[in-house]
């Protein structure tokens, strides 16, 4: 099959169609908006996807459904926007016209002070409003995990978020009222062609399909595959690295598929944290908190489970949890596929079991065996939108006699890769699940890990907490006394 | 003359919950920040090249790779400076724009690249090759003391009474030490300057600065031109918090130098990481203290030394460490006291102003001593606090010999204690902790007393410029800068109130050195106190002329001319304000005035440590309850109640916003915000990915914030209001102490946890472990 090639990308920017043929692989959406289009309502606060001042909405089609999600324009590459609808704060109210309900609510509740973060908050709240017109305070806080405000202390912003639906009528919102037309426009942009643009350090490609991706990557194994760009974006904005040629995959619906069968769930490598959340929280309620604490909402909308694994970080959020579940990755090289246990995929710091030209196509997570005990704890300096100092995941099978028959313990932040605690596992396996055996396993952790001291935590704290998390797991499986902070919803 | 029906009151006068004047622009993205200003054709971009060493001689620099990079026009080094290579606000000549032969901290600017685009300039700057010869470096304050590092400025000593006698009399004496971390401002808009060259030696600068006049003078000094050649404009900043009081000067100077050299507009804006690496922060402190007290917990004597990590230069470290001493007493009378500052040099970025300006560190140190006394005696810290409050015969003199005349802390504490149900909740916390093994709770109620006025007396003056145009619209300009605090709104409300016209008749224009000269930094919480008074003065001058005119023209007595809502009443008749102004203009009445104000009563003799540095005090208190996890050190603020004094508020809605915002910012400082330097002297928490300011989900789960509505400033401030910017920043000391109490529960509250700040989960857990060990060892 010959793949047809297009040498431009096309997307809607607010109310207009944009077609670009001269665009670099490292062109960020934020710079494009501010410098090329002079749309300066969207601000740069950090250029690393952590402050949310640059939040815009990106509408993406998936199987005919259009969903608008908040994203960080600073680390989003323009090349990834083919077929999308980008909505910026500049478009919400016309000069001299009425404010958008989200904007009106923010003004009425005194929710802006210096105003620099405000456009980002407006866009995050707009994204929330469209999905959830009457959110709880907890849902508002979740939607705002990726937005920093240094002035207000947030109280007024929360009041604004609660007031939006009192002020506005969602059905009359343009992105709701005109949705059918927008979908039609976006559908018309899909032509099934591969996109190839630029030369050298500017070059990027959008494969026409997963098969096309496989072909491209075999031909150009040095290409950089980019899914959500929540990490690779920083290579450009912070380290000024050359990453071309870039191969985007966020536009590939095939990679966003989720298959649930009797053995488990298979997530395509392009499934975002947000997209995976409903099934994760349904089948693995123990992962709900972890999933809610990955990055901020914008990062969860962009970032993918596949990317979190493929980049091999020792402090990635999902690998310890998935290793403990016995997850595996489907690796694809050309037409060939192989499946590797996730724990075996991570070889050492910076090195994974991946051949040149081979990419992560899917992640398979088996359901927990009945009676399995399972928990994941993420320890951070700040509760939300922070990277783990330590992340511990525990899965235990205890037989009717109270004996541990199977123990899988994995930690992130304790070694150069997400790593199992084999000494601790051995200390538990075959013993009774008691305080004494737990303490023995806690002591064994010192043989499993020699953690580092860095800005997130000292080595001493990491080891101490790693031990204590095992104790927490024990206490949680045994007692009825609360052993975790009751994360109260604010009032 | 028209006869008009009087209306009750104007829209947007003082004491009203008026919206921020830019609110509608903030939410639409149309509020213009400097980076949003359309650039003239040919605008160039500058980017700083920063030291990669903490302390080193520069042996040689190879700029060839920089100069050959795409888009580069050239570089600037110290050799390009036509004036002085110095922006020291302390006039110590220790703050070079560009380092020359030696670098003194990792991140110190050495040169700037000028290129066609910002991206090109930034990429080119990274290509420089510099040969360094490393010198020993010190980043920590105690290591600096041990290494005999110098002080960056003369220290201060405050002394009153006889501490030897005080300690001799004291039944109990405790000694201890505390570390208090610094803080990055994390203004959402980073530093930026945009320079446009003019005719002759003139230069126009848009600068994100809290101190336009100083920026003007510094740019003049670096360029070698007089101040009258330099105009600084600042419409608004995207947050500042003290981080733009002196730190903007270097960026402005570089943009100006480049604009002069290339005769083109030049913009400079560092990346967030470089902004955090290269600009100063809140000072980290080490406090060594000795406190003597009787068996009830009444303090007899205090001897404390406050050592600060000042960084490589003086900057504002003198007044910052002074203010730490001024607040080490907080609300407490120390019969015999000696407080000393040690502003130590370190090989780190030069620390600077930050909301509270050293006061918070001083107060945290003072509150630590209260905690020590309470745990030593097994009492509720609140009881110790009350016992030591200023008040009563002979108990009103501060360590700097100012008499506390306006003390309202007793009433604030009483009201808050009742409204938040402190006593019952403390009992409930104690009961909970007896039962709960892993999760522990703590509660603390802490006071704040914060002195208002610049301790540098000459800064306590302000100017304003008011024009009434012939159509009756009013132009207001003053020396204060808008950084989100709502200063423009409040001052406009004052002017609306003076003229008795609706607020929308008044337009506040960008702060500029061309309209109001020799202004003070918008700092020390003084913005509305100073500029509100200056603007009122300008309005009063115009009003006086108008009254005289009306009395003459209509033949009435001056006392029969009055400014009433949107009208002028002359005798028994009323006329619309705009109609009256038109007539006044036609009659050649000057409708413009420059207003001025200087704060009365204040004086300060630093060498004697004696005077009245503060016009008045602002008070407040908060009660926080927390839960902690004793397995991990994680915590949550379950509830906070605040009662805060802003005098008679100019704008309660904005003031509540200041209190809420300051509380959360202060809570971040004391909990999750940690500055961490590695062994090479590199700051590794230099971006929001590694430096964690509070999120919406970190704010207290229940957050009740109230103003003390009965409070009226006993001094004649603008409409009897009080300053609000800084005082509430210290309210969250209650969070630190509540965490401390929860930790103390593992040792039955018999040992003071000595929890340092920031109380990260790690510090909390390590404090718990320490106490468990101490309890086991008896």
| CATH architect. name of the largest domain in chain B | 2-Layer Sandwich
Corresponding CATH architecture of the largest domain in chain A: 2-Layer Sandwich
> What oligomeric state best describes the polypeptide chains here?
heterodimer
Rg of chain B, nearest Å:
27 Å
Strand composition percent of chain B: 15-25%
| Ends apart, CA distance between termini of chain A | 59 Å
**Model regions low in confidence, pLDDT < 50 over at least 5 residues of chain A:** none
Report on the structure:
The complex is a heterodimer of chains A (491) and B (778). With 491 residues, chain A is α+β, with helices and mostly antiparallel strands. Chain A is built from 18 helices and 21 strands. Chain A folds into three domains: 5-91 and 178-248, Beta-grasp domain (Ubiquitin-like (UB roll)); 101-172, [2Fe-2S]-binding domain (DNA polymerase, domain 1); 257-478, Enolase-like, domain 1, CATH 3.30.390.50. A five-stranded mixed sheet of chain A has the order 1-7-8-10-9, covered by helices on one side. In chain A, strands 3-2-6-4-5 form a five-stranded mixed sheet. In chain A, strand 13 and strand 14 (336-341) form a beta hairpin. Chain B has three domains: 23-30 and 461-598, Aldehyde Oxidoreductase, domain 4 (2-Layer Sandwich); 43-136 and 185-278, Aldehyde Oxidoreductase, domain 4 (2-Layer Sandwich); 285-455 and 606-776, Aldehyde Oxidoreductase, domain 4, CATH 3.30.365. In chain B, 29% of the residues lie in helices and 24% in strands. Chain B is built from 19 helices and 29 strands. In chain B, helix 9 (317-326) links the parallel strand 14 (299-311) and strand 15. In chain B, helix 14 packs parallel to helix 15. The mean pLDDT of chain B is 97.
